[in-house]
Amino acid sequence: MNRSKRRPSISDVARLAGVSIGTVSNVLNTTDKVKPATVDRVLQAIEQLGFVRNDAARQLKAGKSQTIGLIVPDISNPFFTELARGAEQLGESDGYSVLIGNTGHDAERERGYFNLFEQQRVGGIVVSPTEDVTEQVVQLRKRGTNAVLVDRKAESNICCSVSMDDFAGGKLAMEHLLEQGHSEIIFVGGPADFQQVADRLAGAKSVVKASKGRANLKHIKTAELTVLAGREVGQQISAESRKNWPDAIFAANDLLAVGILQAFAFQAKVRVPEDIALIGYDDIDFAETAIVPLSSVRQPASLLGATAVELLVDEVERGPAHKHRQITFQPELIVRESSSKPASD
Amino acid sequence: MNRSKRRPSISDVARLAGVSIGTVSNVLNTTDKVKPATVDRVLQAIEQLGFVRNDAARQLKAGKSQTIGLIVPDISNPFFTELARGAEQLGESDGYSVLIGNTGHDAERERGYFNLFEQQRVGGIVVSPTEDVTEQVVQLRKRGTNAVLVDRKAESNICCSVSMDDFAGGKLAMEHLLEQGHSEIIFVGGPADFQQVADRLAGAKSVVKASKGRANLKHIKTAELTVLAGREVGQQISAESRKNWPDAIFAANDLLAVGILQAFAFQAKVRVPEDIALIGYDDIDFAETAIVPLSSVRQPASLLGATAVELLVDEVERGPAHKHRQITFQPELIVRESSSKPASD
DNA sequence: GCGCCAAATTGAAGCGTTTCAAAAACATTA
DNA sequence: TAATGTTTTTGAAACGCTTCAATTTGGCGC
User: Fold this and answer.
1) Residue of chain B with shortest Cα separation from A138
2) Distance of alpha carbon A210 from its chain centroid, rounded?
3) Which of B141, B146, B139 is nearest to B123 (CA)?
4) What is the rounded distance in angstroms from the CA atom of residue A199 to the CA atom of residue A171?
5) What is the rounded radius of gyration, in angstroms, for the C-alpha atoms of chain B?
6) B152 and B161 in contact (C-beta within 8 Å)?
């Protein structure tokens, strides 16, 4: 109707209902100390005026908001979509909304979201960091905003963190490949300064070392952890003459593995697993339904997100009684067809 | 340090810098009417105290926030991820942050986000609706919050909308399949009450009708538009005896098409496009890199999102001068291998 | 030193809530 | 009826910011 008019406030409601603003506030917050008849009158006035509570004012008074900021490097990666879902679910059950900030691996944008969330006085921040955020977290905390690291281990005493044991995951995948009788193996992944990638590679290397020459590991670096990057590597490998093919490929994540799979399938030259075995990492939903069901190292992404939020909420609500914890989950090997021992060979 | 202490406010800064709070505010808002020396002093005080502006207070005063709420039914669908990206980019260039609410096709959650966003006094709401939101939008608008529909056409006069011509898209795909010489065609998709799906099917049907008996269209309904649902349909079709196979399949979106493709490839029975041609819808990034590059009907998802935000911002900023518009984009046929005419046949 | 103008700074009002001590209304008992 | 206890209601004081009319300061010409 009259779009220019001020939106009705709590005091407009009070006036119309013939009560004080304190009473309206009590009704809004469902305090049980208001007489039912009064409640009705107030609700009616609210309805009539189309009153909607102003969250900014509420927050200003409260000093804190029932919101958690989640910063992730790449929301289009199913691992993070899943992680976010876990965070949202646990947040909701504790009465928090989760706001997602997507950085695209850009440190600048990461800092932008730290700022935005701090200005909004979110209850706390969960971050899967792109760059080293230790200093930022320390500062943030000094100013009174809590933070929890996810998918990255924190230096203890700084803050809580929920991470995966990527080194163990790398070992798991590599040991599996060796057990299957493979010895010439290629690790595909990058950039090298992604901690997770580096750890997985290190885990794999440790197995090679322990095998005392029974296995050999090469590393093909990629600029990204995407399907497209995987596809390029796959084409590159299948273009080699057959004798240069590895026995197996360990991809740093499932997106890469899927890309490799696509390249192989498209050219119909390399058969998986008969010619080259393949294992990925993350066990995204898509792995199971890939053209050849993909072996992978499962990370409980949803649980990671949920646990991070849980720790954060604990910190926010228990205050000084809270103690920082570094939780590390162990990954789990999921064997599917892409890395199975050739049946008849 | 002392985490219990109140966070510093603008007046703490003012006191330390020896100026009035008005001046501090001017510095924060980079008004040019402050002497450089004063600016320095204030900035130093801000630094020293670790002051961070309280956004709630700022918003309360302003009455509006520089935020736009975006409500989508399924953020894990690349179409919506892309749409959101477009919305974010345009929003950012106009100085708005975009908050994303994911409903999972749940009308209850959709209403929840409407409420949340309204309480937060967002600048406006962009929604790709799950249920009919006409009434909600009308109410919202009456109370002073603007909204724009995306991927769904609005009844004119209600609000702006940015949609795709799904009927035309359905025609496009179908005409292409007929041109390739196919006549027995299956449309895969559902639920039937998704407007987009219904429109695409209607478009396809209109072509069949115009063909005067040259073509025949069946409909296999699915409960979701996911890879998994597609896979099931694919298995079902390939399980049929060869003579019951259709010439071509038109999938209501690319996720379904990819699932179908997977089922066919896995069982190595049906060849695409030699045995059955396949076309999807959306042209998600993944379509091009699918195991058989997937023909599709391109929707400029990013542009949809950006345009919706553009209309919303126009409405918010120009107020009464704004006129509602219903923008409809035309989809574009993208022919790839999955539907090409068999080379030698 | 004076007057004048522009530039810089001030400070109080107000945004819409929540909170909480105090007041009012009502109920119960002596 | 008065005294007492209990349930409701009240209303003013924050919360931390922006705004803007009013005031102060500083520069300049005379």
Assistant:
1) B1
2) 32
3) B146
4) 10
5) 26
6) yes
pLDDT digits (tens, 9 = 90+) for B245-295: 999 999 999 999 999 998 887 777 899 999 999 999 999 877 877 778 899
| Chain A, nearest residue to B50 by Cα | A143
> Is B106 within 8 Å of chain A by CB?
no
Which pair of tokens denotes residue A27? Answer: 């009704």
Q: Could you give phi then psi for residue B69, rounded to 5 degrees?
A: -95, 130
To which H or E segment does residue B42 belong? helix B36-49
Bond before A8 cis per omega within 30 degrees: no
Q: Which amino acid is at A107?
A: A
- CA–CA separation, A340 and A177 (whole Å): 9
Q: What angle do CA A322, A328, A332 make, to 5 degrees?
A: 145
- Quickly count: other Cβ atoms within 10 Å of residue A345's Cβ: 7
Reported residue count of chain B is 345
What are the start-end ranges of the H helices in chain A?
A: 10-17, 21-28, 36-49, 55-62, 78-93, 107-119, 134-142, 166-179, 195-210, 227-239, 254-267, 285-288, 301-318
Per the listing, tokens 């073509």 go with B215
Tokens matching residue B201: 């099917």
Nearest CA of chain A to the CA of B30: how many Å?
17
Return the residue in B3, B68, B226 with the most chain A beta carbons within 10 A, the one to mutate for interface testing: B3
Residues 135-194 of A with CB under 8 A from B: 139, 141-144
- Residue A245's pLDDT is 96
Query: How many contacts, defined by CB atoms under 8 Å, are there between A and B?
Result: 98
Considering only CA atoms, give the Rg of chain A: 26
**Are B1 and A142 in contact, with CB atoms under 8 Å apart?**
yes
The tokens for A312 are 């954060």
Q: What is the DSSP letter of A218?
A: E
Instruction: Give per-residue pLDDT as tens, A165-178.
Output: 999 999 999 999 99
> Contact B261/B278 with Cβ under 8 angstroms?
yes
Start-to-end Cα distance in chain B: 78
Per DSSP bridges, beta strands B216-220 and B248-251 are unpaired
Are the C-beta atoms of residues B179 and B211 closer than 8 Å to each other?
no
Q: How many helices (H) and strands (E) does chain A have?
A: 13, 12
Q: Looking at residue B60, what DSSP letter applies? A: H
**Per-residue confidence (pLDDT) for residue A78, from 0 to 100:** 87
Q: How far is CA A106 from CA A71, A113, A118, A163, in A?
A: 11, 11, 19, 21
Say if residues A150 and A308 touch (Cβ distance below 8 Å): yes
CA atoms within 13 A on the CB side of A69: 27
Q: Is B86 in contact with B98 (CB distance < 8 Å)?
A: no
The DSSP secondary-structure symbol of B230 reads H
Q: Which nucleotides of C are covered by protein (CB under 7 A)?
A: 7-12, 14-21
| Burial label, A310 (beta-carbon count in 10 A; 0-12, 13-18, 19+) | buried
Give the mean pLDDT of A259-286.
89
Which position has the token pair 């997770």? A196
User: pLDDT tens across A145-163, in order?
Assistant: 999 999 999 887 899 999 9
Determine if the peptide bond prior to B273 is cis (ω within 30°).
yes
Structure tokens at B344: 């030698």
What average pLDDT does range B24-47 have in this prediction? 90
Query: Tokens in use for A218?
Result: 């090469």
User: Which three-class secondary structure state does DSSP give residue B129?
Assistant: coil
Helix B195-210 to helix B166-179 angle (10° resolution) is: 40
Instruction: Tell me the pLDDT band of A249, cut-offs 50, 70 and 90.
Output: very high
